[in-house]
Amino acid sequence: MKRFLVGMMSFLLLAACNNPKPEETAETTPAATDSKPQPAEFADPKYTEIGKSGLASMSSGDVDGWSSNWADNIVWQWNNGDSVVGKAAVVKYWKDRRGSMIDSISFSNYIWLPLKVNQPQSTEQAGIWLLSWYAVNAKYKTGKRMMQWIHTAQHFDANDKIDRVVQYLDRVPINAAMAK
C-alpha cells in the first residue's frame, strides 16, 4: 500500500509540473504595432564623437573649435546654480578661464552615454542628451594642480548643436588650485 501511495503521489507531482502552457491568443500577445517608445533609449554614437572632439579641442586650448558645436542660445549651467547664457558669453567665459587661469588641462577615463529621451521623467528636456563622466587634470597658472571627476550632461537641438550643458563638479579643488 505504501508503494502504491508513493507511486501515486509521484505521478500526481509529475503531472502537475508538466502542465502545458495555454496557447497564446491575440488577446494575450502584444501586437508589434502597439509598441510605444521607451521613456529613454540609446542615441546615435555620433554624439559621443562630438563630445570627444570638444574635449580634445579644450585640451589643446582651442575654445573656438570646442564651441563650434554649440547653438547660439546655449545655456551653460553648473550644479551650484551658476550659469552663463548665449554662445558669445559662454565662449568669452571659457576663453578667459582657459587663457588666463588654466595653464594646461587633460581629460581621461571617459564614460560616454548618448541617450534619446522620449518621455521626460521630471524637468529634463526631451531629445538627445550626451551624458559623460571623465577625470580632469588641470594645471593652473598658480602652479597648482586640480584633479577630479566631472559629470557633464549636454542636450542637442534639432540641428545637432549643443543648446544646454549641465556640469557637475566640486568647486573646492578648483578654488584651491586658483589661490596664490
Automatic annotation (TrEMBL):
Protein known as: Nuclear transport factor 2 family protein
Chain intervals for the UniProt region annotation (Disordered): 22-43
Signal peptide region: 1-15
Top-rank lineage group of the source organism: Bacteria
InterPro entries named among the record's database cross-references: NTF2-like_dom_sf
Keyword tags: Signal
Highest classification ranks of the organism: Bacteria, Pseudomonadati, Bacteroidota, Chitinophagia, Chitinophagales
Keyword Signal assigned: yes
Signal recorded as keyword: yes
